């Protein structure tokens, strides 16, 4: 469900008590999107009618402190999707999301690690092979990786990734979400990409808040069940990358289980070394 939206109507994205200013950067034609399955008059986000103009993501990101609107580059379920799911048809559930601040990211990651490394009842994989997937840790949670020193500007890194994503996939649309930080934009918009693993996207936002601080991460691109982050402080050695890879596995085991072969944490960690963008996919 959608409504035609002149720029001043962006105020409808915020609570009535919020004082925000509209973007200075000119927006392309777009509309406010209401959650399809919720009885509410408050839109979840603003969506451009067509592809995001080059450079606009960075301009809107730079204005975020003044506008309170975090930009997202949004992708659809497939290129021929007339409804541009889940964005165009409002296939989101903001009313189902909790407060990201109510969760402890370290506890979430440890719990998920335990769940993903435990043998399933119908698991035909021998215990030794299952342990090899998460070697050198096996089923033992290594703990969250330590914070890394920023050597590049996180916001500039995010701008560069946005330009790269749009150059490679120019049909991506622009979204605007009323959120204090990029990590919260996903739960505020009601995105349900990780639903097969956890239904409350605020859990993801909680972890992403922590990654913003420790790795200089920023939320840039979002698809039906995919997420792309920019990373200003990636690990620089394989040894440093291993505990980071463990965090990725805890949050999104499909990155390892169904990613590039070989399907091991050890191999996945090597791909994180020096990588300024992290991509996640929940099956």
Please tell me about this protein's structure.
With about 280 residues, the chain is of the alpha+beta class. It is about 35% helix and about 15% strand. The protein has 10 helices and 8 strands. The protein has an 8-stranded mixed sheet with strand order 1-2-3-5-4-6-7-8. This is DUF4253 domain-containing protein. It comes from Actinokineospora guangxiensis. InterPro entries: DUF4253 (IPR025349).
Determine the structural class based on helices, strands and strand pairing. alpha+beta
Number of helices: 10
Average pLDDT score: 92
Q: Distance between termini?
A: 26 Å
Q: What is the share of helical residues? A: 25-40%
Cα shape: globular
Number of domains: 2
Contiguous runs where pLDDT drops below 50 for at least 5 residues: 1-6
> Within the largest sheet, what's the order of strands?
1-2-3-5-4-6-7-8
Strand content: 15-25%
Oligomer: single chain
Per-chain topology:
Elements: E1 2-4, E2 30-33, E3 45-51, H1 56-62, H2 64-67, E4 69-74, H3 105-117, H4 127-133, H5 154-168, E5 173-178, H6 182-189, H7 202-215, E6 217-222, E7 226-231, H8 238-251, H9 254-257, H10 265-272, E8 277-281
Parallel strand pairs: 4-6
Antiparallel strand pairs: 1-2, 2-3, 3-5, 4-5, 6-7, 7-8
Biased composition (Basic and acidic residues): 13-22
Organism: Actinokineospora guangxiensis
Region (Disordered): 1-38
């Amino acid at each position: 469900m959608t409504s035609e939206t002149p720029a001043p109507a962006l105020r409808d994205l915020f609570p009535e008590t919020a004082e925000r200013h509209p973007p200075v950067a000119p927006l392309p034609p777009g509309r406010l999107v209401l959650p399809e399955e919720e009885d509410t008059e408050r839109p979840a986000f603003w969506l451009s009618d067509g592809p995001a103009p080059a450079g606009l993501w960075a301009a809107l990101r730079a204005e975020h402190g003044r506008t309170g609107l975090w930009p997202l580059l949004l992708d659809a379920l497939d290129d021929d999707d007339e409804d541009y799911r889940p964005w165009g048809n409002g296939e989101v559930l903001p009313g189902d999301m909790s407060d990201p601040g109510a969760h402890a990211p370290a506890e979430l990651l440890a719990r998920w690690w335990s769940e993903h490394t435990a043998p399933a009842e119908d698991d035909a994989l021998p215990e030794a092979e299952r342990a090899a997937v998460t070697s050198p840790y096996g089923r033992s949670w290594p703990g969250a990786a330590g914070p890394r020193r920023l050597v590049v500007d996180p916001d500039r890194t995010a701008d560069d990734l946005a330009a790269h994503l749009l150059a490679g996939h120019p049909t991506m649309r622009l979204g605007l979400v009323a959120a204090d930080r990029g990590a919260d934009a996903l739960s505020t918009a009601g995105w349900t990409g990780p639903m097969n693993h956890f239904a409350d996207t605020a859990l993801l936002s909680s972890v992403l808040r922590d990654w913003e601080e420790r790795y200089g991460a920023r939320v840039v691109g979002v698809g039906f069940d995919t997420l792309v982050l920019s990373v200003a402080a990636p690990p620089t050695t394989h040894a440093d990358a291993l505990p980071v890879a463990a965090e990725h596995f805890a949050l999104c085991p499909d990155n390892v289980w169904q990613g590039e072969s070989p399907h091991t944490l050890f191999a996945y960690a090597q791909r994180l070394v020096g990588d300024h963008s992290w991509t996640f996919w929940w099956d």
